[in-house]
Amino acid sequence: MRVIVLGAGGHAQVVADILLRMRDAGAHLCPVGYLDDNSHLRNTLPLGLPVLGTLAELDGFEHDAVVLGIGDNRTRSRIYLALSASGEIFAAAIHPRSIVAPDVPVGAGTVICAGAIVNPGAAIGANVILNTGCTVDHHNHIGDHAHIAPGAHLGGDVSVGEGALVGIGATVMPQRRIGAWSIVGAGALVHRDLDSGVTAVGVPARVISHREEP
User: pLDDT tens digit string along 133-145?
Assistant: First the structure.
């Protein structure tokens, strides 16, 4: 399966590395290269893979699937939905050194980085990022386009809504609910449910702003 990474920045290179490690572990896939709208990156070779052109040129390159290497949840969601509507196939990128319980469904286009742990009974949506060393405990539900950042830890039976971001090193107590498109700041401790579209920071986490959902 020929896979193109959309984006060529830092996160995209992490995604490309995952695909390369999957290939080395025996997966039947071939990372083709990147597409990125930054013209300065064209013809460079991050991790030995070429930056082929822009996202608008996707149809001009032979491929079987794509995966998004874009960290911003709203941007990633917008591109995912547009390409899904046009019939693109999305590959999941799951690092061989992550641990995902065998009963866990993983949605299309999701990226699971090295050291991430997903325990039994959990469900991971489409186009999600489970970043380096995060833990998603039993019976969690992670909504589409969400991002669990490096070193974040979710207790059992946590629900993270569509497009939400749980920041670096944050902790979410068991049975808490984080609403769609909310942001949990780095190092925060979520001990109460959070509504949709809020930003919460601190220990314990407190809401400091509200924003509209996309």
Answer: 999 999 999 999 9
